[in-house]
Amino acid sequence: MVTEEMGAARAPGRPRSEKAEKAIVDAAIDMIAEGTGVAELSIEAIAARAGVGKTTIYRRWSNKEDLVVDALATLKAPIPVLDAASVRENVVRYLGSMQQETHHRRTRCIMNIALSESERYPHLAERFREIAIKPRREALRSVIQRGVDSGELRADVDVEVAMAALTGAMLFFTKWRDNEDDLPLDLPERIADQILTGLRP
Amino acid sequence: MVTEEMGAARAPGRPRSEKAEKAIVDAAIDMIAEGTGVAELSIEAIAARAGVGKTTIYRRWSNKEDLVVDALATLKAPIPVLDAASVRENVVRYLGSMQQETHHRRTRCIMNIALSESERYPHLAERFREIAIKPRREALRSVIQRGVDSGELRADVDVEVAMAALTGAMLFFTKWRDNEDDLPLDLPERIADQILTGLRP
DNA sequence: GCGTTGCGAAACTCAACCGTATCGAAATAT
DNA sequence: ATATTTCGATACGGTTGAGTTTCGCAACGC
């Protein structure tokens, strides 16, 4: 009875290729970023694109959802630095980064997953929230909370509603617009100014 | 050369069954409302559910997307009456109806289509916007505009941003929440009060 | 009655993809 | 060297659904 628990050299045969693993995950992400929904995503297509045999995929993940979850987990979400002096400036930066990201197709399509496939793939949606949404939400919450603490914002401000208004307004513009082209460049400023007006003493 | 333009009795043979047509459209809508994505929606399943032959479907629509577009077009979106005296009351009603609708799975799933399939099915998304989103947006815009005109809101209010903040905040709460259960019942009031604070003289 | 057209049902071909199995080659530990 | 495991490739049976065709019957105008 040899213990399998610890130990470094635990491989009797040929070790699994990290390169193949990365190629698979990249292929999956790329295809999602190109607009392929999770439903249409096929293992065969991923294998072909990654230059890998189907066996290599099935040896690691038992189904499509597991693979996609792992793939999403590798996505790093760079959060803007929110260390400016004023709440307004931090909010403008935050909204600006949101607006920037909607120009990257990758981000757009990943957001679509979070929004649309959440009904059918709860695991996936939860994982996504954990990775992409939560840290940002914390960052924005901190900005607003600091504003309340410092007196720059009123003490009775409902932080959750304020966050929803700011984030929701930007999302609304970028996702529900009839015409995506005519977004004004100063949108972050306009949203920040209008909403913060109601939050100041 | 007989003109085919006008005329009532233009049917040589058996007329097409309106009942069958309605059954097909209903079946498609029901399946979408139950969570079936457009991609997984199969003509065969629609035919079976509607109790019609595939022939009957292909005789009317050449592909799935055309059918879904037509199906969405039959959806009537009941818009709340916004004739209260105050802007606040109208906004609360509007947000309240939004919150209500997210409890109907039908509405949720249809919203998902608008949000998620918009990349892959542009026709569909456009049609949906025309039917479901635009009238509501007009209703809310009218409420805010009337508030500005009557002096209840400031003259320099950015109506578009205000709409985005109100609608976006509610959407954010209902769609991006970690935990969907703990939505406070007075959410419409809280959102309205907080945001309208910044819009008043 | 007759020609025409729509109807539901069923059968068909064709393609995609799933998940598994098999193969010879390659990579590693002992 | 040998045993073991992974590799990519390929093939396989099975399922699903698209889109077409055929069939016998029903509904309509004339």
Please tell me about this protein's structure.
Chains A, B: Residues 18-79 form the HTH tetR-type domain. Chains A, B: Pfam families: TetR_C_11 (PF16859), TetR_N (PF00440). Chains A, B: InterPro entries: DNA-bd_HTH_TetR-type_CS, Homeodomain-like_sf, HTH-type_TetR-like_transc_reg, HTH_TetR, Tet_transcr_reg_TetR-rel_C_sf, TetR_C. The structure is a homodimer of 201-residue chains. Chain A is mainly alpha-helical and 201 residues long. Chain A has nine helices and no strands. Chain A is 62% helix and 0% strand. The longest helix of chain A has 29 residues, at 122-150. In chain A, helix 1 (18-33) packs across helix 2 (43-50), helix 1 (18-33) packs across helix 6 and helix 5 runs antiparallel to helix 7 (122-150). Chain A has two domains: 4-73, Tetracycline Repressor, domain 2 (Orthogonal Bundle), CATH 1.10.357; 87-197, Tetracycline Repressor, domain 2, CATH 1.10.357.10. Chain A is elongated, with a radius of gyration of 21 Å. Chain A binds chain B through residues 35, 37, 39-40, 108-109, 112-117, 119-120, 129, 133-134, 157-158, 161-173, 175-176, 178, 190-191, 194-199, and chain B through 35, 37, 39-40, 108-109, 112-113, 115-117, 119-120, 129, 133-134, 157-158, 161-173, 175-176, 178, 190-191, 194-199. The structure holds a DNA duplex (30 and 30 nucleotides).
